[in-house]
Write a structure and sequence with these properties.
The structure holds two protein chains of two kinds. Chain A is mainly alpha-helical. Chain A has one domain. Helices cover 73% and strands 3% of the residues of chain A. Chain A has a two-stranded antiparallel sheet with strand order 1-2. By secondary structure, chain B is mostly helical. A two-stranded antiparallel ribbon of chain B has the order 1-2. Chain B is globular. Chains A and B meet through helix 5, helix 6 and helix 7 of A and helix 18, helix 19 and helix 21 of B.
Chain lengths: 487, 481
């Protein structure tokens, strides 16, 4: 069998090098190379998804010694936890290229960064060796830094550095945790799977969990470590925002489910009330702050904080249902946040403003774009039948049924109402109403734009209907994990 | 050590380097000059590089595990590791100097000879196991540097740098010799292991302990760590960039070569973790905080170098096999990255005469190779994955944790994040800045050094195992002794 995972990691790298080497007087080459590369990777991802055996454990494994002295390996594999995330990453990379078709500022640099980002995000979800995982984890920062710093808005320099340093600080503290696991007498390996449920002493687990918590919680992000997110999102160019919300945030929740929970289950039991508390605060706080936003993109950014809170609540619950909810939020938010950011970007291109007060009447002026934007908003607020509902519902059900105090679930449920309220209010102000002068001359969505948004809408609908089928791979993983966690 | 070999055979690498220096001076007398043109200067550089390569081959072939001069010199895996590193540094420095020496000094041949002799001195420091030979060899590394700094006699900043360096050398050498005589008086031996044993056995009187502290000053000066780091920013900024490049790697590594040997010989005798750990934290923090507000690229790199010394001391503080192997690996990684960064600086200063960070604005479009090389070097110094600097930091931090010094690991990783703030600022200037500037041209030789250096940073970053194994073998052999 071909090394399909390595191909998915290194094809984008090859593409990035090809783009960097492309002649400067051919400004359209970079986007075509990027589109071709990401399309091939997406094809490989779909093929992998189609052939992977549900409940079959880790598959497509590639394993070679890398640094034998420290027992570090090049170890890739996918299982029920990572398979959908890999597909999501591949899909969003491709759509990000489509959405960036009109980038004319330094296109070679731009598209090679998009591809380099794909190297990191694909790798992070496949790496099963801690050091390799860490390498990809940090590799993601570099292209995202440049995407924000070069193609971002007015305060891009500040936002890019803040994003970089915040995440880096979380990452290096996580690195200390990784080292602690390796150096512990019961550890002795960087193999993430092997370290699961080794029965580390509880006191030790507590500290290591703290280190991982900081690394992952910054990425999710969990209140109060979220402050980099609004800055980064607002300043980032549209496609980068979509990738940031759609994939990069999932690295945090993935980290919890792949590493922190299975390896440190006892520490999780001690920390879970705290995680649940922060999750609930994130849900409510994100929703309330989203209410107050005058800037459309900032509203979507804060809605991410709120929605990712549901994933964290599912992780705090630790039951199979709760974990399924967390994963469903991951996937659904991957579709919808990307869709929302892309829609907002398209609106901004037309209105040249993101101020909610200066945009209205989208439905009248550009019904197709408005329809897709509204679809994303409704799916995001948790309309039954669409993917957003699945995640929120399962997370709430999981936390209600778990040993967590019922108060968390009740407050989170209020958060659902708040989320519906600010989204509906936004739809009412922006999409409905009189046509604002800012969009009086604007055209409707172009075929390329529809092609960017429609797949996400379709997938959100499909997941909302066939959610059991969507979660079939993950369910085996979450059942096993819940057993380790004692739930 | 297993027996002795003939001194000429055993010290062939060092002797070849010294003789090449002499040869270059002689050649200078006979090579023709025309009307301010000196076509022979390239040949001098070529001869120097050839000599260094020959020395490298000799280092490979020299008999291993030999001791000389009554056991005060040891030729072993460690000395061979450093031989090769110093030879590599020498080649890189000559490579990056070829096109710029004649710009700042009329004494081209003397420049190469001094670089070679200083390299030989560095190599000798890595051999010394006795205090007195050590003192002599340290002078052998410092004196050529004073002369090198003074070669740019028409540049007042360089003269000032040379004078400052001279004064610091005098003070630190005096302290070193003072400390050394105290230690010798207290223990009656000048052998490193003997001293360590005496210190561990509690037979070292207070006077001897004070002597060790004074010796530390001489060492801290070499590696630019706290408390003898203050000279670096002024000297790095004032000296000709090529000399700064040499100073920032060669001299620092010589200091660490001696530390590694001393520590390896005393590893089970001395507990220095706390003291060295404190120096490490002080150096990292001071260097990084100092670098944050620098606008001159060379000054910034001086502060960065102080911080780098701090990271290396983290591995020293671990005082274990892992720690010392990590130190060796880190030194090689640092040498490659720092030499690469300075190659770009030298080439840029040659082309434009400017050396502020802001002057580098938009370099990515003015000279893509130089920008990529500098960004790669800085990201390696910062410790970003896929560069050699990442594995170096990873291994050093791991060694501290392995020795139970989690507080030190934590301080180090937080410092590493802090450092990203200023390294990233330069990368931002290189790549992000939109200002339009003229193209910066550079010579083909500079480009070649950059390509080799950048390849080194990436390739060893991706495949660190061979270098790591070599470092590990050198240290284990030494400790097993």
């Amino acid at each position: 069998m071909p090394p399909i995972l390595s191909l998915m990691v290194f094809l984008p790298l090859l593409g990035a090098v090809a783009i960097a080497a492309a002649p400067a007087d051919r400004p359209t080459w970079p986007r075509w190379i990027a589109a071709a590369t990401t399309a091939v990777v997406l094809g490989l991802a779909v093929w992998m998804f189609a052939t992977i055996e549900p409940g079959g454990g880790v598959q497509f494994v590639e394993r070679y010694p890398w640094i034998p002295l420290a027992n570090i390996e090049y170890h890739l594999g996918v299982d029920g936890l990572s398979v959908l995330l890999v597909v999501l990453a591949a899909l969003l990379s491709f759509l990000a290229v489509l959405a960036s078709w009109r980038i004319d500022k330094r296109p070679r640099f731009y598209f090679s960064m998009i591809l380099l980002l794909a190297v990191g995000t694909n790798g992070v979800f496949m790496a099963l060796d801690f050091v390799l995982f860490y390498v990809f984890w940090e590799l993601v920062l570099v292209p995202m830094y440049f995407l924000i710093a070069v193609w971002g808005g007015e305060r891009r320099s500040y936002a890019a550095v803040k994003f970089f340093l915040y995440t880096m600080l979380g990452a290096v503290i996580m690195l200390v945790g990784i080292l602690a696991l390796y150096l512990h007498p019961l550890g002795g390996t960087f193999d993430m799977l092997e370290l699961a449920d080794r029965g580390f002493p509880v006191q030790f687990q507590w500290w290591v969990f703290l280190a991982f918590f900081l690394g992952f919680a910054v990425k999710v992000p969990v209140w109060p470590l979220h402050t980099w997110l609004p800055d980064a999102h607002v300043e980032a160019p549209t496609a980068a925002s979509a990738l940031l919300a759609g994939i990069l945030l999932k690295m945090g929740t993935y980290g919890f489910m792949r590493i922190a929970l299975p390896i440190l289950p006892e520490a999780w039991a001690q920390w879970r009330w705290f995680i649940a508390l922060l999750a609930v605060i994130s849900i409510v706080y994100g929703a309330l702050v989203a209410f107050a936003q005058k800037d459309l993109k900032k509203l979507v950014a804060y809605s991410s904080v709120s929605h990712m809170g549901f994933a964290m609540l599912g992780i705090a619950a630790g039951t199979a249902v709760g974990l399924n909810g967390a994963q469903a939020v991951n996937i659904s938010h991957g579709f919808l946040s990307a869709m929302l950011f892309l829609s907002v970007g398209m609106v901004y291109e037309r209105a040249h403003t993101r101020q909610i007060a200066e945009i209205s009447g989208l439905a009248t002026k550009m019904p197709v774009l408005a329809g897709l934007f509204a679809f994303a908003s409704f799916a995001s607020l948790g309309l039954p039948g669409l993917s957003g509902f699945v995640g929120e519902f399962l997370s709430l059900l999981g936390s209600w049924d778990s040993t967590l105090a019922p108060g968390y679930t009740i407050v989170a449920a209020i958060g659902v109402l708040l989320g519906a309220a600010y989204m509906l209010w936004m739809v009412q102000r922006v999409i409905l109403g009189e046509v604002a002068p800012s969009i009086a001359e604007a055209p409707d969505a172009s075929p390329r734009e529809i092609a960017t948004l429609l797949p996400l809408a379709t997938l959100s609908l499909a997941m909302g209907v066939w959610w059991l089928w969507t979660l079939q791979h993950f369910n085996a993983y979450s059942t096993g994990l819940a057993k380790i966690l004692g739930g | 050590m297993n027996g002795t070999g003939h001194i000429v055979e055993v010290l062939a690498p060092q002797l070849i380097v010294v003789l090449t220096g002499a040869l270059v001076l002689v050649a200078d007398l006979v090579l023709p000059r025309r009307e301010g043109e000196y076509p022979g200067r390239t040949w001098l550089a070529a001869a120097s590089v050839t000599g260094l390569i020959a020395a490298g081959v000799a280092a490979f072939m020299a008999p291993a595990n030999t001791s000389l001069l009554g056991g005060t010199l040891a030729v072993d895996g460690l000395s061979r590791f450093f031989d090769l590193v110093f030879i590599g540094i020498g080649i890189a420095v000559i490579g990056l100097s070829v096109d710029s020496v004649h710009r700042f000094t009329p004494w081209v041949a003397e420049y190469y000879a001094l670089v070679l002799w200083c390299t030989a001195g560095n190599m000798m420091v890595a051999l010394a196991t006795g205090l007195f030979s050590l003192a002599v060899f340290l002078q052998l590394t410092s004196l050529p540097l004073i002369a090198l700094l003074g070669l740019a006699k028409n540049d007042p900043r360089a003269r000032e740098a040379a004078l400052k360096y001279l004064l610091v050398v005098l003070v630190s050498t005096s302290l070193l010799l003072w400390g050394l005589s105290l230690v010798f008086g207290a223990t009656g031996t000048d052998d490193m292991r003997g001293i360590a044993m005496a210190a561990a056995g509690g037979t070292l009187p207070a006077l001897g302990a004070a002597g060790l502290v004074f010796m530390l000053a001489g060492f801290a000066f070499k590696v630019t760590s706290v408390p003898f780091q203050f000279w670096a920013p002024d000297v790095y900024e004032g000296a000709p960039p090529a000399v700064t490049a040499f100073l920032s790697v060669g001299s620092k590594l010589a200091g660490f070569a001696l530390v590694v040997r001393f520590l390896a010989l005393s590893i089970d005798a001395l507990d220095i973790s706390l003291a060295v750990g404190a120096l490490a934290v002080a150096s990292m923090t001071l260097g990084n905080l100092g670098a944050l507000k620098q606008h001159n690229i060379r000054r910034l790199l001086a502060y960065s170098g102080i911080a780098q010394a701090g990271y290396i001391l983290v591995g020293v503080a671990a005082s274990s096999v892992t720690g010392l192997s990590a130190v060796l690996f880190y030194l090689a990684a640092y040498a490659i990255a720092n030499a690469l960064a300075f190659t770009v600086v030298v080439s840029f200063v040659d082309a434009t005469g400017l050396d502020e960070v802001g002057d580098l604005s938009g370099l990515a479009r003015r000279n893509p190779l130089a920008a990529f090389a500098l960004a790669g070097a800085l990201m390696s110094l910062a410790g970003l994955p896929l560069t050699v600097g990442f594995m170096a930091k990873f291994y050093v931090f791991m060694s501290a944790a392995e020795s139970g010094l989690y507080w030190l690991t934590l301080a180090a990783v937080i410092n590493a994040v802090l450092a990203f703030a200023y390294y990233l600022r330069i990368v931002w200037t290189l790549y992000v800045s939109d200002e339009e500037h003229a193209h910066v041209s550079m010579t083909r030789r500079h480009a070649l050094v950059m390509v080799v250096g950048a390849l080194g940073v990436v390739v060893i970053g991706l495949f660190p195992a061979p270098l790591l194994d070599a470092a590990h073998r050198a240290v284990t052999a030494l400790i097993a002794g």
